[in-house]
Amino acid sequence: MIVLVNKMTIKGSPEEYERLYARAGAFMETQEGLISYQLVRSQTDPRTYFNVAVWRDASDFERAGRDERFHAMFAEMVDLVEPDQHICQVVHEGAPGRAA
């Protein structure tokens, strides 16, 4: 399992970014290997968003990222955001009710 953490600094309209993200998210939901994703907005800096996506493995994420439909959707966002992407591995996790 890998976790994609993508910090997006908005240079354009946040509403436009959210609209385009929703469309890209709907596409990603059809991709094999996607487990879950969230778009979260900073309460400290409302021009900062984080896309957090959990994938089965890096090859699934890379395959989805090579799709021409994804490239076309990302091209629409390129002037709206400054991305800072990190592909991460889970080293520790927790949830209420789990034994230590």
UniProtKB/TrEMBL annotation:
The keyword Lipid metabolism does not apply. It comes from the Bacteria. InterPro entries: ABM_dom, Dimeric_a/b-barrel. The keyword GTP-binding does not apply. Residues 1-90 form the ABM domain. GO terms for molecular function: monooxygenase activity. This is Quinol monooxygenase YgiN.
